[in-house]
């Protein structure tokens, strides 16, 4: 069975493929020949996730799901939030995480959370699934796995960053893992 994941992000694709391996073949935007950079102009994760999934549903006539996600840092008024992918002005994980580290210099409240909202469009109907994980922002980056802000995010209850975990361990606790778990449960409940 195939499921279309409306993303250009190869890291997200890999994480979701790992979660759904054996159950679904995941096709991302590249796999369905969608070369458009879908505009993300909404003011929330849910709104942007719906823009991405709607674009594919309308233009490709396919059921699909999309993920909009990001890092919310308490002391930075929940920035970078929906601007996570381009916080430092353009795409680039290193520049983005360095900007967070720079803004957090001297700040003792290091609380942060990762959030994901998944939008599913199924036969014209829309569904949302959310996941979040609480943690703290490290003083410096550590670890080589994952992507984005993983090297500076330490989930509560762990002494390692997401970038020091392998994909399976991160997926078990991450915002995306939680949201995808809800999507999978929803799809399973339908498959009677
Ligand atoms: P698509 O829109 O094509 O799915 P994107 O990278 O543009 O890919 P978003 O608009 O949802 O995705 O931006 C999410 C950004 O938030 C992402 O580029 C990372 O910088 C950050 N992010 C999201 N999930 C993350 C994770 O699990 N680990 C680290 N950083 C993450």
From TrEMBL:
It comes from the Bacteria. Binds 1 Mg(2+) ion per subunit. Coiled coil: none annotated. InterPro entries: dITP/XTP_pyrophosphatase, ITPase-like_fam, RdgB/HAM1. Keywords: Hydrolase, Magnesium, Metal-binding, Nucleotide metabolism, Nucleotide-binding. PANTHER family: INOSINE TRIPHOSPHATE PYROPHOSPHATASE, INOSINE TRIPHOSPHATE PYROPHOSPHATASE/HAM1 PROTEIN. Belongs to the HAM1 NTPase family. This is dITP/XTP pyrophosphatase. It comes from Pedobacter hartonius.
């Amino acid at each position: 069975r195939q499921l279309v994941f409306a993303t250009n992000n190869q890291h997200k694709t890999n994480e979701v493929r790992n979660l759904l391996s054996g159950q679904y073949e995941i096709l991302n935007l590249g796999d369905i020949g969608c070369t458009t950079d879908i505009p993300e102009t909404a003011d929330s994760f849910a709104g942007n996730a719906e823009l991405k999934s709607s674009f594919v549903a309308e233009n490709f006539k396919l059921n699909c799901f999309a993920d909009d996600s990001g890092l919310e840092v308490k002391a930075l008024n929940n920035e970078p939030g929906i601007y996570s992918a381009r916080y430092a002005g353009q795409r680039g994980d290193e520049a983005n995480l360095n900007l967070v580290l720079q803004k957090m210099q001297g700040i003792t409240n290091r609380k942060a959370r990762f959030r994901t909202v998944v939008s599913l469009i199924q036969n014209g109907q829309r569904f949302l699934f959310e996941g979040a994980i609480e943690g703290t922002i490290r003083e410096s980056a550590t670890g080589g796995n994952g992507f984005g802000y993983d090297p500076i995010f330490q989930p509560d209850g762990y002494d390692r960053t997401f970038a020091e975990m392998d994909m399976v361990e991160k997926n078990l606790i991450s915002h995306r893992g939680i949201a995808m778990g809800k999507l999978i449960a929803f799809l399973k409940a339908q498959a009677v």
